[in-house]
Amino acid sequence: MNAAKPLRADARRNREALLAAAREVLDAGDFFDLRFDDFAGLAGVGTGTLYRHFPTREALAEAVYHEEVATLSDRARDLRATLPAEEALAAFLRGMVDHMDAYQGLARTLATLMATRSGALADGGQALEEAVGDLVADAVRDGTVRADVDAGAVMMVLHGIGAAHDHRPDWRAEADGVITLLLDGLRRQPSPKCIEGTA
Amino acid sequence: MNAAKPLRADARRNREALLAAAREVLDAGDFFDLRFDDFAGLAGVGTGTLYRHFPTREALAEAVYHEEVATLSDRARDLRATLPAEEALAAFLRGMVDHMDAYQGLARTLATLMATRSGALADGGQALEEAVGDLVADAVRDGTVRADVDAGAVMMVLHGIGAAHDHRPDWRAEADGVITLLLDGLRRQPSPKCIEGTA
DNA sequence: TAAAATATGGAGATTATCTCCATTTGTCAA
DNA sequence: TTGACAAATGGAGATAATCTCCATATTTTA
Questions:
Q1: Is pLDDT above 50 for B96?
Q2: Which of A12, A31, A153, B192 could form a Cys-Cys staple with B178, CB 3.0–4.6 A?
Q3: What is the CATH number assigned to the segment(s) B8-55?
Q4: Nearest protein residue to C21's C1' (by CA)?
């Protein structure tokens, strides 16, 4: 991914410091209350260094988000390996909501990245989307989930949940409701009628 | 709603000019490429006037969005009056996607307002939510839609679709997919089993 | 260990946002 | 009408955020 240039020792150190500071601020929910330059001070580096490593606020958020997404992608892989496809998908989606609820950082970041024009969500978003795509594909393959809807739709819903985080007082309940709707909507074929309920 | 003070003639004129300019820019998709002060120039008023009428960029977007939402709410009312509840809901949601596709202004604005922290979506959002709430309530009442999921969930999904507008190359197809999923998820009761399908 | 390559900090340039008030415009009562 | 009062205006400049630049410092390499 970033094997371009090996990055000098002090550079890596500073980058880490910046990321650590940003993560803290992000978790505290103050990400937008700070001047961008302040992240430099917080990390004990100069503003030049800040800008060299992360040209924009969004880039910084993206970088923090990256690790978080890696964790979630791993989780998706685990679930895929240990549960029936449909349950894995359900568990993953519910887990996303839990995660956003617990550390609002991710939710907020999703919102930020989405709000930013520019094709953000670059890396992290793609990794997440891939993970979701795999989960859905599994479930389609074993016939528990309809085949006529793209995983992209699921991503869009996830984005919506994240973006709404700070704006809806009853977020948690609504988010759970959305996942329920989504899972029920995904189940079985698009055709109406009725087949013996499996569960 | 805003019967507080009658607003002087020139004030109303300037406000309209500002709104007109903003609408144009919004429709062209340049809303974020402009300095906020530039809206004043575009409307032929001073910056002071701009700030007096719309203290922030978001307030301006909200005001433009307001009329658009009024139109949509009217549409919801019409549909409610002329179609069976479930069809009305479906038609409305599909119509929202059409609308966002045709004039990206609404989609973009939804995204903006959502991105803004502060309890934005103040008026317009509430009106829209009410319209959706009524549509859902009707459908619940006549038994075609499950009763265990709040209309807020539908709003969240709508927000997600709007927010994703600029970020997903295949937006239209995914948005349609989301609506399909949503409608199927909403149909009938949460409990499994099976009741004679009405349609 | 010295030269080359890389990275640093932070002072200021640049750009965007917002405030203030002397002046203009509109309203209303007489 | 008109005069007096209130409401609104515009835009110069204060304030604040973002970003650039480069003389200096650190790391790597040979």
A1: yes
A2: A153
A3: 1.10.10
A4: B48
Mean pLDDT of A31-48: 95
Among candidate residues B121, B146, B128, the one with its CA nearest the CA of residue B136: B146
CA distance A7 to chain B (A): 31
CB contacts, 8 Å: B196 with chain A:
194
Phi-psi region of B126 (alpha: psi -120 to 50; beta: other; left: phi over 0): alpha
* Cα torsion angle, A76, A80, A82, A88, sign: positive
The interface pTM score, or ipTM, of the predicted complex is 0.81
Q: What is the pLDDT of residues A49-91, one digit of tens each?
A: 999 999 999 899 888 888 788 888 999 999 999 999 999 999 9
- CB nearest to B160's CB, from A117, A160, A196: A160
Q: Give the containing element (helix H, strand E) for A39.
A: helix A38-43
Please write the tens of the pLDDT for every residue from A138-155: 999 999 999 998 888 998
Six-digit token string for A118: 């520019």
Whole-model pTM: value is 0.83
Which residue spans of chain B are classified as CATH 1.10.357.10?
58-186
Superfamily of domain B58-186: Tetracycline Repressor, domain 2 (1.10.357.10)
